[in-house]
Amino acid sequence: MNTFPWLTALGVLPLIGSVVVALLPKSRPSLAKQVALVIALATLVLTILMALSFDGASTEQFQFVENYPWIPAFGISYAVGIDGIGLVMVALAATLVPVVILAGWHDVDDAASRTTGSVKGYFALILVLETLMIGVFSSIDLFLFYVFFEAMLIPVYFMIGRYGGPQRSYAAVKFLLYSLVGGLFMLAALIGLYVVSANLTGTGTFDYLTLVGLDIDPGMQKVLFLGFFLAFAIKAPLWPFHTWLPDAAAQSKAGTSVLLIGVLDKVGTFGMIRYCLPIFPAASEFYAPVVITMALIGIFYGAFVALGQHDMKRLFAYSSMSHFGFIALGIFVFTTTGESGSVVYMVAHGLSTAALFLTAGFLMERRGGSSLISDYSGVNKAAPVLAGFFLFAALSSLALPGLVSFVGEFMVLLGAFQKYMFVGALATFGIVITAAYVLRLYQKSMTGPLLPALEGMKDLKGREIAALMPIAAITLVLGLFPAPILNVINPAVDTLMTTIGVTDPPTTLNPSTTAEGTQE
Amino acid sequence: MINAGAVVWAEGAPTLQEIMPAEGVFSLIWLLIALPLLGAAVLLLGGRRTNRWGPYLAVLTVTASACLGILMVVGLMGRGAEERSIGQSLFTWVFAGQFEADMAFQLDQLSMVFVLLITIVGALIHVYSLGYMEHDPNRRKFFGYLNLFVAAMLLLVLANNYLLLYVGWEGVGLASYLLIGFWQHKPSAAAAAKKAFIINRVGDVGLSIAIMVIFVTFGSVTFDDVFGQASEVNEGTLTAIGLLLLLAAAGKSAQFPLQAWLLDAMEGPTPVSALIHAATMVTAGVYLIARSNAIYDRAVWAATAVVVVGLITIFMGAIIGSAKDDIKKSLAGSTMSQIGYMIMAVGLGPIGYVFAIFHLLTHGVFKAGLFLGAGSVMHGMNDNVNMRRYGALRAAMVVTFITFMAGYLAIIGIPPFSGFWSKDEIIHAAFERSPIIGSLAILAAGITGFYMTRMVAMTFFGKARWEDDAHPHESPKVMTIPLIILAIGSTFLGMALLFWGNIETWLEPVVGYSTEPSPLSTSAVIAISLAFVIVGSVIGWISYARREVPIVAPRGSLLTRAARADLYGDAVNEGLIVRPSYLLSRVLIWFDGRVVDGLVNGSAALVGGASGRMRRYQSGFARSYALSMVGGTVLVLLALVLVRLS
Amino acid sequence: MNPSNVVILSAILFSIGAVGVLVRRNAIIVFMCVELMLNAANLAFVAFARMNGNLDGQVVAFFVMVVAAAEVVVGLAIIVTIFRTRRSASIDEPNLLKY
Question: At what angle do helices A421-428 and A281-307 cross, to 10 degrees?
Fold first, then answer.
């Protein structure tokens, strides 16, 4: 049954959808929304079907592989396939897109957005972005990955620059330039890698598995690693490459922010796991202390800056930066729990960011778009359901045990602690500051006396609840029963650990058999 | 020094019990948790539809859990002492590499008594709340949160590994947060809720790191694996684990130095204070330490730290309780102090564990009774909490008065009320360990007598100092019946557990039990502690019943003023942690905007500026372009010539 | 005849053309100077073809003539248009194509 081209079908469906949406008459915006939603839901169904036929116990690293030569002269091919990590990321993207479409139903109806872009254009861009996201997570040819990686900038640029807030063009250009600089470094490293592969094997290639199998000179690795890492660190973003994120998040629509931070930025951390570690194992180990330091600084820096923010969206952006610190920490400690935890954290962060931004979006819509925290107080009284979702999102963001973010966070911290006791213990203190800024936000905006200006504020409507409910349900269910994702993530992480040739540090008592092997 | 892995308190340390499969009624362990959880889900997700019948459903689910608990205790009693530990595993929860934590429960003698305390006291408080919260528009939510709390607390005591315990641990913290801030329109309530959660998070850091140390040491986080192999681990590691768990316990149980949240937590509705901040949640720290007895028995320094923290808190709580005029805050101080006793007792090792749990149970009942009694008083006094505006209420609310007196006699430890037995055993155990600890414990018992007498005298005796619009009246039956049941418990539970239930033998297989020679005989301890209590009470009586109580609080001594300010706990937190954090935050925001983003925007400006200069050369004069072309050509030619020549 | 003399002549013609382009303002004259430079190049091509003894240079010279003819057509058209709108054939006048 594996002959069905799942991944290509998955990628093409939203693309066709976007063309259809773009060709619809401008005078019927609601039809465009409906078509976009149907297409996104169909993609989700297709993703679920694919996930069901994914074999967690397979010995092959990648499944649903399709490989066609594209530019044979340079060893470039259209090669797609996914492992467990790619699968959960594709699933995350496919889940969030319909949610964002549903939640952003009226986001671009206002006059300000319509002067610069049409309603159908926004939804068409979302679908194009979905195609590119699926492509980026399922490429197993580095050149193809690069193409998707860079192409993703285009729809996002327009989504921020055309449909954003007052300073949208500043934010969009900043985002674009930052990403392009990173992409440039990556392109250079990519060409370098091609040359290296040509020197080592005789024929240059961009094929992922071949490149992983190469035994690249450590000195060369250190140079090439930097190119890839810079691109991913800007995308993720890690401290100190983060300053585009608060601007982009503050200026874009809630839906754009969700896709940008929830999925797109994950490409950065995903890239570190997929490319940096296996292709440059020696360099990864060499740079690990630097990256871990950056991650640690990021965790606390982001959290402390978030603590003093007056603007909700900027607060979320800095909190995300703090969370990306956790993810990067988990990746670069080289333990099974750390790597698995990072992937779980990526999913969890996608979900919690989506919940936060969307709820905040609904809130701002009811207050003329202001995102200043001081413009809200006592919302709980007027809109209890909204406040309830807001609290749930906040708790999900502070990694309350029982929610999926806790599973990810704890695994990351444990993974760090196993390797570097001090780092793990230090990072754990981040959870206190996270609680402080998240609950401060909740306290200031949702509790206390109701502001007179908010009198008569409407609670969430059916459509908005329908958008938030799936995210909340997934967050809770995976928190109590994470086996569905752990079952696919863990084999992929095991493969990764074998590829980079690192084993977990043994425990004092009852060391596992594999760990014992390395001790002797 | 003690050798690695040496058992410090070998005497009385328990041997690991074999875990029996869950059969019969025990196959329903999960249902204990699931019932209140279901209630919470229905109430919180059901929306306004459930407004009418929701609260009754909440009462029903907790009652059903209580009945199930009673069935289980009967089942356990029918078994031999070595077959009373039952495990039930549902599925593997978190796993990666070597790490594995199951969604699995363990019901043994220790969890059992907690299940009974939580479900029975919980059910009574649910019933009481039906009356207390009758007119609150958000009654449904209140009951949903209460149910959520019961479910989380049961998960905490039933978990068979530390990670799952953590879920319950944070679950009760969440419920506590929601309930303290239940009246969210009051900024003080919202602030208190946030404060409680954040201080608890500091404790959680301890628990998180403890779990990590446990995993890297034992390769497992299951209680059975950890305790079974604790003897193979060196003392340093065990001490680290012990201290980290103590930090966690200090957060949840409001012990020094993380005590500051409990007094503010009284912003919550009174039933919440009774259930969460007196009877159950705040005792979770005691449970955690008692459960980890295998670790503390081998880490004498950690155990000593536990004793010290307990002692400090006993006095802090007692002093605060003596100075507060707010009846609930005074009771909260008393709770801190009483939990201090328990914490001190679990630090004593096998001579103390069982009595700590014993005191925990009796305290859970009588303190719940006292809080609900205070709630009943407030109910009749227009929610006024200031004891200086009470006085002479004994005639106006007879049932409340009588039940409150039962709780009062129990807490100060007058025989045969339940507190006497448990506190006396703790003091006795303290003397077995060290006369200093014992003496301090007795001194604190005297202070307990003082502040409780003060409270009773100010509330029920003396002259009426009511506000003009106060019309004290007895509460409805739905509130007084739980009071009566708890009063009966306050009176007889101590004797029942000690003589009929044999609490030492019951708990011994889990936490261990031993006695050591004591410098004072049992009767001497009783005599001295009773003497102290009576002296304290008499002073309290003379100062607050015989003399006129001023309506406006007098300035008071230095200590009184310090105690009114919670012994400056908030001031210390504010000065040492909160202000520096916000300062750091502001500095970093400045740094981020000016330096990091400044660099980015600066380089952008540099490129922009440079290109602005460059474009000036695009003058639009075709001939100057032609000249630069010629010049360029000449330069290239010259270069070529030079290369040729050289 | 020595072909190198022809090359020197072509260099002189080219320089005259180049200087003319640089110093004259009248568009027509500038244009003629450009033609002069093109023809200087043609002369050089032919001379080199003779020196090398093959026809490549002569072939290129034909190409240049064709291109020059095309250029004259386009260029004169532009000059005439500009002259119509601006009443001037000075090439310093239309300086709108700047930053």
Answer: 20
Residue A56 pLDDT exceeds 80: no
Q: Mutation test of the interface with chain C: which of B613, B614, B617, B621, choosing the one with the most C Cβ atoms within 10 A?
A: B621
Asked whether residue C94 is domain-assigned, the answer is: no
Residues 6+ apart with CB under 8 A from B269: B129, B132, B133, B136, B142, B179, B182, B183
Kindly give the residue spans of alpha helices, DSSP state H, lying in A236-311. Answer: 244-251, 254-257, 266-271, 277-279, 281-307
Chain C residue nearest residue B633, CA to CA: C18
Task: Kindly state whether A417 is in contact with chain B, defined as any CB-CB distance less than 8 angstroms.
Answer: yes
Its domain, for residue C13, covers 1-84
Is C56 part of any domain?
Answer: yes
Tell me whether residues A417 and B166 touch, CB distance under 8 A: no
Give this prediction's pTM. Answer: 0.88
- The pLDDT profile of chain C, 99 residues, written as one tens digit per residue, is 688 899 999 999 999 999 998 888 888 898 899 999 999 999 999 999 988 888 889 999 999 999 999 999 999 998 888 888 888 878 777 666 666
Residue C90: inside a domain: no
Output the average pLDDT for chain A.
89
Q: B-chain residues within 8 Å CB-CB of A406?
A: 167, 170
- Whether residues B204 and A380 touch (CB distance < 8 A) is answered with no
pLDDT tens-digit profile of B64-82?
Answer: 999 999 999 888 888 887 8
Residue A417 to residue B216, Cβ atoms within 8 A = yes
B456 SS3 class: helix
Taking CA atoms, what residue in C is nearest to B628? C22
In a domain, C89, yes or no: no
With beta carbons under 8 A apart, name residues in chain B contacting C15: none
Residue A332 burial (C-beta neighbours within 10 Å; 0-12, 13-18, 19+): buried
Dist CA B42 CA B50 (whole Å)? 8
| CATH number of the domain encompassing residue C42 | 1.10.287.3510
**Residue of C22, C97, C99 with shortest CB distance to B623:** C22
- What's the number of domains chain C is made of? 1
